[in-house]
Amino acid sequence: MKFKKKILCIGAGYVGGPSMAMIAYKCPDCRITIVDTNPDRIDAWNSPELPVYEPGLDKIVKKRRGKNLFFTKDIENQIKENDIIFVSVNTPTKTYGAGADMAADLQYWEKTARQILKHSRSSKIVIEKSTLPVKTALAMEKILASAKGKIKFEVLSNPEFMAEGTAISDLENPDRVLIGSHETKSGLKARAELTGIYARWIPSEKIITSNIWSSELSKLVANAFLAQRVSSINSISALCEKTDADISEVAKAVGMDSRIGDKFLNAGIGFGGSCFKKDILNLVYLCSYYGLQEVAGYWKNVVKINEYQQERFIANILNSMFGTLAGKKICILGFAFKANTGDTRESPSIYISQKLLGEHAELIISDPKALKNAAIDLEGIKGNVKYIEDPYRAAAGCHALVVLTDWDLYQKLDFQKIYNSMVKPAFLFDGRNIIDHKKCFAIGFNVYPIGKPALSHFKN
Ligand code: NAD
Ligand code: UGA
Fold this sequence. Notes:
Strand order of the largest sheet: 3-2-1-4-5-6
Shape: elongated
Oligomer: single chain
Bound molecules: nicotinamide-adenine-dinucleotide, uridine-5'-diphosphate-glucuronic acid
Strand content: 5-15%
Structural class: alpha/beta
Distance between the termini: 76 Å
């Protein structure tokens, strides 16, 4: 079959895989190829068990794989053969040298630019899908500008706004698609070409365009604003615990103001995931770099409150359980950084588990999708840890349940059955406020939510 467009994506991760699968699904006349330097990832994308768990992803990959969606290790030839190249490699926080622990590590990004330069034999549109510091396109352009002969590259910014766990619906029906380009003749032509792809399934009013720097910066700012809401509500949850106010009631009253809105106001154990922290730190670094210390300090506090919330939660467990966890069995319900994903990158569960193990608690960790990653995350950590998927078996014989991920299934558990199998007095720490606290208290649990009065059977 002759394809209308030949599209390559470099980076077969949580973004590259689902976002390209969606393009393949919506544009059967376009050929989409995804490459990665990690051969295991490519093998997994070609196998029955995909490397990423995402509701609905299996279905669309299996529908298009081998037809117009291909996963391959042959980066060199794919760069030669394709006209449009998305770059979706990882951009983690730098751990070394200047800007360590703040700036984005652009080594994978730059290597990709050099690969594109080395193997291209014709002009191409190169699209930033990774989240990058503002002005990164300039560096990419400088590298690509050294191409020989008539080969020209047009760099676009097209940041991805999907969230894990809802990636497929976010990609199918996004709030907006943002395309940044230079406002030159060739920039506008490339912009129109990419707009044409998204317009196959996304209404035109949702496809917005901007200059390339606004596009790069908007992505960082969107994540910073979302994370800021989580830190804002979490900061107020601390005040609620001191004043007998209830954070859910406060969030509802505040969120019903249409100017504020009701989303992202769930108090909990703090945000996790591979992006919020790294993107805010990147923003903080950029502000400092440009001499905007006050602005940098403002955003840094979003991360500080996130860390504070986890510390508070851990201290609450320790204090409520009479100041010692040594030898006590604690059942962790949920290790993924949020529901409906197996991803545990920067999950609050990692830090909380490490701290509880540091108190010599024994941990029984349960999660429907993230146990493999949990075992990798806690590898080498001293202490007694077991991994049991079935929450009933995991909780049996434990002193406390600690809910760390908002999986639906935890709301539906038979808590009477669980209570009967636990050591008494039994404790329930709900780090996500998803359990029916009153019901569990009536069963006999001592219940400790976030930002609400504790329900305890102990007399003062
Ligand atoms: P990821 O680590 O899951 O995937 C990145 C992939 O790129 C890896 O498989 C890695 O092996 C590959 N890679 C690195 N260098 C390469 C090279 N030179 N050639 C070929 N492959 C290479 O990361 P991710 O979660 O998919 O995130 C990718 C980017 O998208 C990041 O910038 C992130 O901030 C951004 N983003 C992520 C999400 C999300 O939900 N995870 C959402 C929006 C944006
Ligand atoms: C987030 C953004 O929502 C996406 O738009 C963005 O594309 C993506 O980051 C990215 O750039 O990587 P994601 O991290 O997958 O998506 O998931 P979110 O739903 O944003 O949740 C992030 C964290 O905040 C989770 O740990 C979640 O449990 C927590 N959270 C979220 C709360 O604690 N309370 C809330 O009310 C909402």
